[in-house]
Amino acid sequence: MGHIELARWADVMIVAPASADVIARIAQGNGNDLLTTACLARRCELIIAPAMNEAMWHHQATQDNLALLHTRGVHQIGPASGGQACGDVGMGRMSEPAILAQEIANHFQTGILAGKSVVITAGPTREAIDPVRYISNHSSGKMGYALAQAAVDAGAKVTLISGPTALACPDHVTRVDVVSAEDMYQASMNALKHGDIFIASAAVADFRPATIAEQKMKKTSSDTMTINMVKNPDIVASVASATESPFVVGFAAETHDVIAYAKDKLQRKKLDMIIANDVSDSSIGFNSDHNAVTVLTKGGLVELPEASKHQLAATIVERIAHELSVNTQPVR
């Protein structure tokens, strides 16, 4: 269903302009067109930008509808005062687009990681076989990039160590591009010197070819090929075992026994938190804009139901901030 799909992917929904009629219909819970049904089906926050004649703005019915929406948590930007299309002058002009954009950006800035330095790994790695071929995986990097945006919105200084992806780097994020697992390991250990939080969301190859052919490998008469593999460095375990380790968050992308494997990884690698998800479900996870995860710490687990990766990233950052505040509280 089109209106349901529209309502699911957004981190926030803004209605601009929001006429007196639209405000009234949203307040009454109407769902008789695409806009109002999307508003009813949304799971994210709603922002309205009123725009109407100044007499309609001041009408008690409009003010009552706005008051009702405010009690439901709907946010409002504007209106501004000035000349209107009908020739009247007064309140009711929609706020300028630049103001709306800034207010929406401010809406995401929580400040819960203000003063913190966050290092995030994202995307796949590519392990070369020869100059043409490589071994990789299906990771799109979307979760890591969403986490980078969420950390910036939370006030952190963010370094994103990214394997090959087609994604644009979020604003105010320092991106370090890498290709192989060894590249990512070196970049991570270098960034570790300045990091308070390390989030290992990249899908790093566990093994790489022992040797890389200097020339393209040619097909032979044999029906099989053997490639000797060697283990790659374990980035998240290395960071967690460092002398001055930051708060370390790992990821466990599993196809079965998800929670059991995640718990083992949390304990064995001495992580502070791990995010587990079932990648056997093709509708979420790799390459999808949505996911459903379980957040595990030494204190227990919290299941986060399916949502956009941006929504999940914001919630994960909130969980990290909470754990940091708990762990740094003085003992009484």
Indicate the CATH architecture of the largest domain: 3-Layer(aba) Sandwich
CATH homologous superfamily identity of the largest domain: CoaB-like
Helical content class: 25-40%
Total separate domains: 2
Largest β-sheet summary? 8 strands, mixed
Global shape: elongated
Description:
This protein has 332 residues and is an alpha/beta fold. The protein has 2 domains: 2-108, Rossmann fold, CATH 3.40.50.1950; 117-327, Rossmann fold, CATH 3.40.50. The protein is built from 11 helices and 17 strands. It has an 8-stranded mixed β-sheet, with helices on both faces. A 3-stranded parallel β-sheet has the order 1-2-3. A two-stranded antiparallel sheet has the order 4-5. A hairpin with a 5-residue loop joins strand 7 and strand 8. Helix 1 (2-9) crosses helix 3 (34-41), helix 2 packs across helix 5 (60-71) and helix 7 (142-153) packs across helix 11 (309-327).
